[in-house]
């Protein structure tokens, strides 16, 4: 028996007063009075609870606006672009329609446009790193994209870590070390040099984990590493097999590939045109949740940019630890050139010192080779960048 029916019958059948019923069942006297008079007018229909829905909803979003929200959702999704509430809100604002993010979300949910997902860990538990200033840190990576004929193309990007502004995005048959240095230099000429870079451990970015690579004692860094060292730019590399270190650019690849799936390209030229248009949209139009729902291009210009920490003395000493090879030689990169002859033959020290660990001190065009334990002088050189093979000073 429904609660309303009990209250009404307590008055009509038991003959209790309104006050007695209210005291007995813990309700107000006004409710009992109203229910009794409703029963007198409607009969047994008064037993059922009435809807609490208001007769009018003057603040309800107009149907044309609700229809526009759904249309924008479908349009953006069809184009392979982000179609979340923040993006829809930005597009509506450009059409002079102001709607809150929560209202848009409710409209999408009510129309079955939101796929329920299991509850994730709270955002308050996230520990996110973001550079404090533009050009303080650039992230770079490259990914694979297939043309309509299944030709594999590689796309390289340079992204500012501060507010996720995609500074450079180009397609190449293969991303080589030369492509990395060329795209980095072109981007720096347009936006200024960064204070630091962050990449994975691909050979085009670093040779630190390769045999003969930087830090292994028997070789130097690649062209990109040398370029950064000459400019005073700090080089950072993620841990091997830990992709989350470069999370911002990895997230960008996910968004980009969703867009490319809706815009397949027949040629590398057509792909580049699509990439240019998408980069403009992502930088100038789409608001990003990770940066307070601002557009990256707007945020990138808000505060002064960071710059590399260049040496105060351009003739600063360079110190490199190395190991003499079996032929009594080491290689040395100087003024952007690798001094060598044939296959890795460079500065001649002598076979008697093969496999000896040494310290190479470079100042201007002078190089001095000493042993790390005793400081014994093994050789001195006056470097000539026009020649591959460098002879010891007499």
From TrEMBL:
Query: In this entry, which stretches build a coiled coil?
Result: none
Alphabetized GO MF terms = nucleic acid binding
User: What sequence ranges are listed for the domain Integrase catalytic?
Assistant: 130-304
- TM regions (residue ranges): none
The processes (GO biological process) annotated in the record are: DNA integration
What Pfam families does the record point to?
HTH_32 (PF13565), rve_3 (PF13683)
Question: What's the protein called, per UniProt?
Answer: IS481 family transposase
Which species is this record about? Answer: Microbacterium aerolatum
């Amino acid at each position: 028996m429904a609660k309303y029916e009990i209250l009404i019958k307590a008055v009509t059948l038991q003959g209790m007063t309104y006050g007695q019923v209210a005291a007995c069942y813990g309700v107000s006297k006004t409710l009992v009075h109203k229910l009794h008079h409703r029963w007198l007018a409607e009969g047994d229909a008064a037993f059922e609870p009435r809807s609490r829905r208001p007769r009018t909803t003057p603040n309800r979003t107009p149907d044309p606006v609700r229809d526009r929200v759904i249309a924008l959702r479908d349009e953006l999704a069809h184009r392979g672009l982000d179609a979340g509430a923040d993006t829809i809100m930005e597009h509506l604002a450009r059409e002079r329609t102001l709607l809150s993010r929560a209202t848009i979300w409710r409209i999408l949910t009510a129309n079955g446009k939101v796929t329920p997902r299991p509850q994730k860990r709270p955002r308050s538990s996230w520990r996110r790193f973001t550079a404090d200033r533009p050009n303080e840190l650039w992230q770079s990576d490259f990914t694979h994209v297939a043309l309509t004929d299944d030709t594999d193309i590689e796309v390289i990007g340079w992204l500012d870590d501060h507010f996720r502004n995609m500074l450079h995005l180009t397609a190449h048959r293969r991303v080589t070390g030369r492509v990395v240095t060329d795209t980095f230099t072109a981007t720096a000429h347009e936006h200024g040099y960064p204070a630091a870079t962050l990449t994975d451990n691909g050979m085009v970015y670093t040779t630190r984990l390769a045999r003969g690579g930087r830090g292994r004692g028997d070789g130097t860094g690649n062209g990109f590493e040398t370029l950064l060292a000459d400019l005073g730019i700090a080089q950072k590399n993620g841990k091997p097999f830990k992709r989350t270190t470069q999370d911002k650019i990895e997230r960008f690849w996910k968004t980009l590939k969703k867009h490319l799936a809706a815009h397949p390209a027949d040629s590398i030229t057509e792909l580049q045109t699509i990439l240019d248009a998408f980069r403009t949209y992502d930088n100038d139009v789409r608001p990003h949740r990770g940066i307070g729902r601002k557009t990256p291009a707007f945020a990138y210009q808000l505060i002064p940019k960071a710059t590399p920490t260049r040496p105060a003395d351009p003739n600063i000493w360079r110190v490199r630890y190395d190991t003499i090879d079996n032929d009594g030689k080491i290689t040395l990169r100087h003024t952007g050139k690798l001094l060598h002859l044939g296959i890795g033959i460079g500065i001649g020290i002598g076979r008697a010192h093969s496999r000896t660990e040494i310290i190479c001190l470079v100042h201007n065009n002078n190089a001095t080779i000493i042993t790390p334990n005793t400081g014994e002088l093994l050789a001195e050189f006056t470097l000539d960048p026009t020649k591959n093979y460098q002879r010891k000073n007499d």
